[in-house]
Design goal:
heterodimer; A: 112 residues; mainly beta; 7-stranded mixed beta sheet; 11 strands; globular; B: 112 residues; 6-stranded mixed beta sheet; 59% strand
Chain lengths: 112, 112
């Protein structure tokens, strides 16, 4: 089974801090994604990456950046955390045809 | 505008009863539709995936149907169990793209 691992289940950070959310997949997938999930809004795509060092903006990239230095790891960076970035963050990777997605367990980030 | 709408927003049923969740979409061109189960504080887990040519797919007590003409899908849960309590999310993919369109989910609570 594909495994997507997010390093933290819960994080509490202060406003203005730089925050790193890490995601690792163990199946050599090329495509990886970062979503945030908020009540009533569903999942929204922040960034995705289709190869090492390649990245594309999703629907809501403002306030975020990403890093993909190795194929298995896709990091989401909050340059200066703000309270409106309090959310559940989900990482995913995809493979196959039709494309299949596996999600990580999520990181619940609270910015105070 | 590509959209995915789910109903009801929330549902409470007695253990052992059946229920049906609805998903309507306007995504075009359509590639496939998935249903995910998301336990509280966890990432979504895939239940079923259906392409244009499939109109029903089962996974244990979960049966998904798809009517690509009317752009509707349903997820039927038979003989519900307490462990079925979760959010169920409908996700539609565009043909030729890696774009996922997420519904906001139905929150199902199964009570004893």
């Amino acid at each position: 089974d594909v495994k997507v691992t997010q390093s933290s289940r819960y994080l509490v950070k202060r406003t203005g801090e730089k925050v790193f959310l890490e995601c690792v997949q163990d199946m050599d997938h090329e495509n990886m994604f970062w979503y945030r999930q908020d009540p009533g809004l569903g999942l929204r795509l922040i960034y995705f990456s289709y190869d090492v060092k390649m990245k594309e903006k999703g629907d809501i990239p403002e306030g975020y950046s990403v890093s993909r230095e190795k194929k298995e790891r896709f990091s989401l960076i909050l340059e200066s955390a703000s309270t409106n970035q309090t959310s559940m963050y989900l990482c995913a990777s995809s493979w196959g045809e039709p494309i299949r997605y596996t999600f990580g367990s999520g990181t619940r980030l609270t910015v105070v | 505008k590509n959209q995915v709408e789910q109903s009801p927003q929330s549902l409470i049923i007695l253990e052992g009863k059946n229920c049906t969740l609805q998903c309507n979409y306007t995504v075009s061109p359509f590639s496939n539709l998935r249903w995910y189960k998301q336990d509280t504080g966890r990432g979504p887990v895939s239940l079923t995936i259906m392409t244009f040519s499939e109109n029903t797919k089962s996974n244990g007590r979960y049966t998904a149907t798809l009517d690509a003409d009317t752009k509707q899908s349903s997820l039927h849960i038979t003989a519900s169990q307490l462990s079925d309590s979760a959010s169920y999310i409908c996700v539609v993919t565009e043909t030729g793209a890696n774009n996922l369109f997420f519904g906001t989910g139905t929150r199902l609570t199964v009570i004893p």
